[in-house]
Amino acid sequence: MSMSLPADLWPEVRPEAARRLMSAAVESFAAVGFHATTTRDIATAAGMSPAALYVHFPSKVALLYEISRGGHEQTLAMVQDVIGQAGSPVDRMRALVGRFVEWHAKRHVVARVVQYELRSLPEEEYAVVAALRRRIEQAVQGLIAEGVRDGSFTVPDEKLAARAVLSLGIDVARWYSERARKTPKALGREYATLVLRMLGSSAH
Amino acid sequence: MSMSLPADLWPEVRPEAARRLMSAAVESFAAVGFHATTTRDIATAAGMSPAALYVHFPSKVALLYEISRGGHEQTLAMVQDVIGQAGSPVDRMRALVGRFVEWHAKRHVVARVVQYELRSLPEEEYAVVAALRRRIEQAVQGLIAEGVRDGSFTVPDEKLAARAVLSLGIDVARWYSERARKTPKALGREYATLVLRMLGSSAH
After folding, report:
1. Average predicted confidence (pLDDT) for chain B
2. Residues in chain A within 8 Å Cβ distance of B38
3. What are the HTH tetR-type domain coordinates in residue numbering (chains A, B) (predicted)?
């Protein structure tokens, strides 16, 4: 399984050694899971000693938290950015699904860790990430509600529809690989059409 | 996290001790992942000695394989059953999504293991399960193609549409919990409506 991680995953994390540790942690969590990974595995993969790891992260949990919180914050910022643009609810939903799906395809290795290792976080850290998830869901639900109000969308249950929209994108991380027939961008475009139909829009 | 497993998960597995080991394995794989689980953990949770485990399963991999293959075989049988019924493509798709989503909600703990621990299988065992997955996808794609031919559905890409239909159902296992607002059955019904829209059907 190819585990190539995009170089620009955590542009804001400094110094470079911390980014290297996060990449090594993602690869190991994705390969064998959080519980079967040791801090020694991560340090070794990053070409560092366990002691050097602790300079940057106090624990394995701290690494998972940083990866998980970072991924959710990036997603929330992207969702808010798209929703805040000018344009009809249809145009913004199309852009939102396009970018969300593209992110989950392109960054499927890190996305798998972000989405599927959440339950390994301790309660307090989990609560922070869960709050970010709720804000993402609420933002998508808000855009659907806007479209319902102006007649672009018709849905029986706005909350459920928001969840379905996000589900389609998140599940891309499970099945997408570099061997997929479609590029992340093309996939995002086609999923946007499917989502607009699902929301009862006639503009697709 | 509640880990209550439905009692009728593996009605065909005999003797009862083997079923008990499979349930214990599912709970542990779901909680800490395949790699962090030992055969001792599984045996202890099932109230047995490690030696007694080996009477039924030669290894931890054999348990995961049995769980994974069993889950996929059940799903394939269900999909083939629904598709083989009389009725229009729309009716059969509605029934299919209803049952698929209901299964993933009701059995979300085992479904998570079936869906997300696949990569831990050795190559040969993985190939068997991957072949079952392809048959499931092809069956759904076949039903979509039938609907396209008789004018019930319009989709730009039948293969992609089949994947999206299955994605919506599979991702239910990730987020569903006993605290969810909707029953598995109600969720299945509402997702069926969303899927019919996605497939360009006017009958919803």
Report:
1. 92
2. none
3. 15-75
